[in-house]
Design goal:
The structure is a single chain. This protein has one domain. The chain is about 75% helix and about 0% strand. The termini are far apart.
Length: about 180
């Protein structure tokens, strides 16, 4: 059989990928945040001086859910692009940026390593920028789906930098969650 797949079959193939990638990435993001006690409920974070540009608490879960959905859709587009040049490299860069992304919350919220978290955000931004450029070579739609996340990473880097600047002794503010004192 040398038939070309119909548009309906192609859509179903993409949908199968998206039905796997979107929930998987959303779950991993939720799990990373939950394990590290991220957000305004974290006692250590509550004690930090925040920059004036810091969004309200509800913005973060809404934004991150949207970004994880967009990332899941973007990687589904790339997974679906079988035979595309640079597909394997793009997937590797995507997975690298995702791994770094998932590590950020534990580094910042659980370990209280504000400076390392800033460097990690810079690495995430660079990896995501490369991923987006690679996605553009494969499918423009995949690259466009990554753009809001890329912009947010720039904003998150600015927030992380400002928190570091406003809290020079942040790492010693409260005993890190990964260590216990009796």
């Amino acid at each position: 059989m040398n038939e070309i797949a119909s548009k309906g079959q192609l859509r179903l193939s993409y949908l199968r990928w998206a039905l796997f990638t979107v929930p998987a990435i959303v779950f991993l993001g939720f799990f990373s945040g939950r394990v590290s006690n991220s957000g305004y409920g974290n006692k250590w974070f509550a004690e930090l001086v925040k920059p004036d540009m810091m969004p309200q608490a509800w913005v973060f879960p809404v934004a991150w859910t949207a970004f994880y959905i967009l990332m899941g859709l973007a990687i589904a587009v790339v997974f679906h692009a079988r035979g595309a040049r640079l597909r394997g490299v793009a997937i590797l860069f995507f997975l690298a940026q995702l791994a770094c992304n998932l590590a950020w919350s534990p580094v910042f919220f659980a370990m209280h390593k504000v400076t390392f978290a800033l460097y990690l955000l810079i690495a995430i931004f660079v990896l995501t920028f490369i991923t987006t450029v690679l996605f553009l070579q494969i499918r423009k739609s995949a690259a466009l789906l990554m753009l809001p996340y890329l912009v947010w990473l720039g904003f998150a880097g600015l927030l992380n930098y400002e928190i570091k600047r406003l809290n020079p002794k942040a790492e010693n503010l409260v005993a890190p969650a990964l260590r216990t004192q009796i």
